[in-house]
Design goal:
The complex is a heterodimer. Chain A is 35% helix and 24% strand. Chain A is α/β, with parallel strands linked by helices. Chain B has helices spanning 4-51, 68-71, 79-84, 89-98, 105-112, 119-129, 146-156, 167-179, 189-192, 205-236, 241-255, 258-272, 280-304, 308-316, 321-349, 353-357, 378-386, 392-422; strands spanning 56-65, 137-143, 182-186. In chain B, helix 15 (321-349) packs antiparallel against helix 18 (392-422). In chain B, 37% of the residues are buried. Classes of the chains: A alpha/beta, B mainly alpha.
Amino acid sequence: MSKAATVAKKPKKTAGAKKKAADQDLQISAEEVTVGQSFTDKPKMTMRNINVFYSDKQAIHDVSIDIAQNEVIAMIGPSGCGKSTFLRTLNRMNDTVEGCRVEGEICMDGENLYSPKLDVVELRARVGMVFQKPNPFPKSIYENVAYGPKIHGLADTRVDLDEIVENSLKRASLWEEVKERLHQPGTGLSGGQQQRLCIARAIAVSPEVILMDEPCSALDPIATAKIEELIEELSQNFTIAIVTHSMQQAARVSDRTAYFHLGKLVEVNPTEKVFTMPEHKLTEAYITGRFG
Amino acid sequence: MSKPVDNLDKIKQSLTRRNRAETRFRWYGRIAILIGLAAVIVLFTDIISKGHGAFRVTYIQLDVHYDQDIIGVANMTDPAQLADGNWDAVPKSALRSKFTDVSGRRDKRKLYALLSNGAGFDLKDRLVANPLLLGQTESIWILADDDIDTYYKTWLDGEPYAARMADNQMAWIEQLHNEGNIRLQFNSNLFTRGDSREPEQAGIRGAIMGSFFTLVLTLMLSFPIGVSAAIYLEEFAPKNRWTDFIEVNINNLAAVPSIIFGLLGLAIFINFFHVPRSVPVVGGLVLTLMTLPTIIITSRAAIKSVPPSIREAALGMGASKYQTVLHHVLPLALPGMLTGAIIGMAQALGETAPLLMIGMVAFIVDIPAGFTDPATVLPVQIFLWADSPERAFIEKTSAAIMVLLSFLIIMNTSAVWLRKRLERRW
């Protein structure tokens, strides 16, 4: 697993005249196709021709991409480019949004996620999610982690449940910090600990894929570093799709990077390539800091 | 462009103006609060000053002889004999033996009027409880008539109200007072008896029980229905024109004058479904209609205040919509819902108008023992007493208002306490 070591630096000056010209460059034509390596040989999830609409407004335009088994794929792009929307189609969290409509085919292990036969509850047990803002339940730390196994009936006995909770907290590198106070409220932890608690909660049901929607945007650098370390460890066992605003983070944690622009998937390539030799001029403009 | 110094002067000038405006505004607020507080204080002092007297009532001590021949009862266990007994004669003979010099029918009638006309029945109850007293004599405190009660209380205060008193009655009272045989006692009748035409015998127990049964039914119906409606509307219902329409109409329902609900109850529950009138069942049904919008609106607000991130977290874990609501939203919204329910109940407790329409305004002496016994409620009892001509009912009315207000204060305080106690921060 290779990670991009260096990140292109921001150019120091952008003259006003240049910027105007650049703005014109940033338009994206309708016929544009995704460049780079969108598809893999052994995909865990396959997305084909995805269009997402919020009422009349189209948020995602014709996106096709594969996510490989046990890879970490990062989705980057400027604000409002649809990367979070796209992530949320993968466990159908968009179902909860009023007026949201998804077209196209999303499969996991060959099974269509939007087929009427599929129960969304089962899907979300297989595709876990970590949100932008840490959102532990206002219950104890133990209850937070035990909630998923409980509702899905994963533990037969109290001992099993204790074990699941302990393992999940250990895998989320939180066990040492909280083992003495498992029955205190999860909301009493620090922001970074809360986010790791949310990760522990997500992995307690042993999902196959974990979606992370800007998991570090509300955290300080030290907590962020811990979470990034954790993502790397988790990638041994899980397939992870992460949306991030931080290009450095994408460069540090991901195997492949997908660049979204105005609802279109512009480029998908191995992370190292994206950050050193981007194929598309928009990707280059973004990672060199000309906009974003 | 003006120089910086000019600007500074202007800013300073405008600053004094702004500060003055703010000070004025603060004073408006303080005055508004003072007006509100003054209204409450005036109300409370008026009610308490009028009503505190009703918690004490005049008793007269007499030597009572339970004469078997006068009463006409030989066997204390025979209900027929007890019912036919001449109980009134007992206090009368006690009075006659106390004031031996009274003669003539008019004077005797004045003498008998010293005691409550229920005194004989009180003695009967005492005798039934202690059958061994039959044939014995005992010294006992007997409830005085309401006119005597009013006179004695005002006489003690130095401004006797003698409009309904005869001269010899006043002399007797003075005599009793000097002998220590007349005194004010705690008025337990007020809390243990039902309504009565005689103010000294009238109590609010019947009205309290009526209010209790009515409110229990109201709570049992309106809380589950209101909360279910609120949960459905907030969490499950699609947002479309129909739900907008329903929402507008729930708000309309909250604004409907309460007497209309009374008419509705009369037309539907009594005339159509033939629910008996004057009973807590029909009162509870009508008050449910009235309380429902309050509970729905407050419950919806409580559900709305649960952060969406909690719902997302639960849904993201694979909880079904139902589990999300039951495990996460409901526990967090419950304090708000309970507060709304208590406030709704407090409203229902103070409601009078709709109950007038469904016959809960009747004069009912018996204390209701269930949901289908004829009953009245506290505010209606206040209305009835306020309408009564006897002077002693003035203080009774105020006393009943004090009891009602204390219930309302307790309910509202517990709503605040509950909210403080249960609310969670995240």
